Amino acid sequence: MTEPRFDVLGMGNAIVDILARAEDDFLVRQNLVKGTMRLVDLEESNRLYSVIGPAIEASGGSAGNTVAGVASLGGRCVFVGKVAADELGRVYTHDIRSIGARFDVAPLEGGLPTARCVILITPDGERTMNTYLGACHLLGPEDVDAEVVAATAITYFEGFLWDAPSARDAFFKAAKIAHGAGRKVSLTLSDPFCVDRFRGEFLSMVRDGTIDILFANEVEVKSLYQTSSFSTALDALKADCKLAAVTVGAEGSFVVSSDGIVQVPATTVERVIDTTGAGDLYAAGFLYALSRGLDLVTAAELGALAGGEVISHIGPRPATSLADLARQNGFVLPDAVTA
């Protein structure tokens, strides 16, 4: 097997985030469930935009955020997602390429506009997401570059892709190519409501080996196994999955593998400003470390550092160099192995 040219390929929804602060009573008035993600149509997205306060626009999307984190650590990365040939699509394309990621998917000409997510951030830093999928819903197998996937150490997918049948087909195509080239495949469960919609498919992929590395938070993994007991869910995950990382907020994360279950502490954050992207950046640190041959505990520690950085400011992507931050905290970041 040849050495990979890329560390991580992230496939997911290319979404421009619209971030605004909101009080809890505003969420109640809008019939929103705090801390969750819901899919909305363009009309509802525009309505919410019209009633929120001052907002910040930032390129986001779960896998896109993870790719941004890998790039900030110095990783070689690729993003696969669909935007429209409109202003938001041009903004997203510029942003993902400007961080050093490869992004070659042709934009959608005509039809649906670029996806956007209205994210409401309450004073405790929790985010409530309202996502209009638009063009990103039309990602398909034809957007998968087999040569690039085969040349990537880890191909990473977000669970939100399962809301679009064509994107699901793109996932299976890429996963087959990755495994055929001897590479790893990873999935993040994304959201408990996403798990509720596709529990059977997610469990099947974990159990049959389609997924080599699974990411989840405590709520998602309990939803996956339909239990109120976190320890029961972890034990079930250990039996089913080759490798998993489960985040538990301020308590850190649990790394689940055939060697056992290990808890790794979180990074201390003086003030939580916005939890948008926390899990995405944890995955970035973890995947970067694995792609460079670091051990699992170090991977979880680097994930915690990246996640801690992103929750200390508004926005879903790093505001400072994660590579510099990692070195300042004693991490040794290995050079990439090139073919």
Automatic annotation (TrEMBL):
Q: Which domain of life is it from?
A: Bacteria
Name the InterPro entries on file. Answer: Carb_kinase_PfkB-like, Carboh/pur_kinase_PfkB_CS, PfkB_dom, Ribokinase-like
Query: One GO molecular function term?
Result: kinase activity
Q: What Pfam families does this protein's entry cite?
A: PfkB
Which of UniProt's keywords are assigned here?
Kinase, Transferase
Which intervals hold domain Carbohydrate kinase PfkB?
59-317
Q: Which family does it belong to?
A: Belongs to the carbohydrate kinase PfkB family.
Question: What name appears for this protein in its UniProt entry?
Answer: Sugar/nucleoside kinase (Ribokinase family)
